[in-house]
Amino acid sequence: MPLVWYTLRRLAQAVVVVFIVTVVVFLMLHSLPGGPARGILGAEATPQQIADFNHAQGLDKPLTTQYAIWIGQLLRGDLGRSYSLNATVSSLIAERLPKTLVLTLLSALLGLVVAVPLGLLQAARRNRLSDYLATAVTFVLFSTPLFFFGLVMIIVFSQTLPWLPAQAPQGQTLASVFADPAALVLPVLTGAAPLVAVFGRYMRSSALDNLARDYVRTARAKGTPFRRILSRHVLRNSATPLITMLGYQIPVMFGGALVVEQLFNYPGMGLLFWNAAQSSDFPVLLGCILVISIATVAGSLLADLAHSLIDPRTKAARS
Predict the structure, then answer these.
(1) pLDDT single digits (tens) 158-216
(2) What whole-number distance in Å separates Cα of residue 136 and Cα of residue 11?
(3) Among 312, 314, 300, 309, which Cα is nearest to 10's?
């Protein structure tokens, strides 16, 4: 029963957070100079053309009225219509979001597969050459801007060594995306690089903390092989906090997807957001931010629930 009330309370908080985000983003977008009319009609548009566009789209109404209209449409499941693409925002997101999910999930999976054993190895071989080398690599990955790392990957593996295509799959469906797996390699590697750095350092720190616990000393005193201690006990206890951390990394992963998709011309929601920002396509921007906000609060909630189920010690804090 405490879990049910905790979940309901977190859902109520999530609704409030998403509402606040929509208000802030709506006000920020409408405070940008130029407005969508200039971005859609171009720099040569006359004042009369801009006024006609604003009137047709309801942009000449007070902000409170515009927001109330948008919220009313949202409650009916209508995210509006793109100014520049002549399509509903819902259809655009439904087409692009699965591709972004594929990219982010593959990047996160690869990041975890590399980071967890890497961090565990560093903790087991603390202050040795392998630890120093891995630390140097993770620091480089963490401090390198994502767009620069992606450019380096393109130069090395697509131009200098023409092994992989520089452009991501261009299909309109998930089947066409998976039909060209070689084109997914560079985008996935680029998206996974910062996750390896973050999760690897976190895993190392968590594993070092567990290696200093009494249960490890007791197991070693009983003659349990160190390799078994790492795989049976330290790995599970150290990796559990990564679940919560992964939930909080959702907005970071979506932000990274925006850069990766623009860099590799990957037709996902990040590229849709980027193009909409170039033309001040407000309905598309609001729809994308709404989806990211919901994904962020949902990821945080699911991470907390999963952590509470895995670690019974959190039950007291939950109640």
Answers:
(1) 888 888 888 888 877 777 788 888 888 899 998 888 888 888 888 888 888 888 788 87
(2) 41
(3) 300
The residues, any chain, with a CB within 8 Å of residue 304's CB and separated by 6 or more, are 10, 244, 247
Backbone angles phi, psi at 88, to 5 degrees: -70, 150
| Side-chain-facing half-sphere of 39: CA atoms under 13 Å | 19
Could you tell me the two tokens for 94? Answer: 């439904």
Side chain identity at residue 279, one-letter code:
S
Is-contact 242 202, C-beta < 8 A? Answer: yes
pTM: predicted TM-score of the whole model, two decimal places: 0.79
Quick one: pLDDT at residue 312?
A: 53
For residue 122, pLDDT beyond 80? yes
**DSSP secondary structure, 112-152, as one string:** HHHHHHHHHHHHHTTTSHHHHHHHHHHHHHHHS-HHHHHHH
Q: Where do runs of H (alpha helix) occur along the chain?
A: 2-30, 35-41, 47-56, 63-75, 89-124, 129-143, 146-154, 174-178, 182-211, 214-221, 226-229, 235-248, 250-264, 269-279, 282-310, 314-318
The span from the CA of 168 to the CA of 81, in Å, is 27
| Token pair listed for 249 | 């990394």
Q: Which fold has domain 96-280?
A: MetI-like fold (1.10.3720)
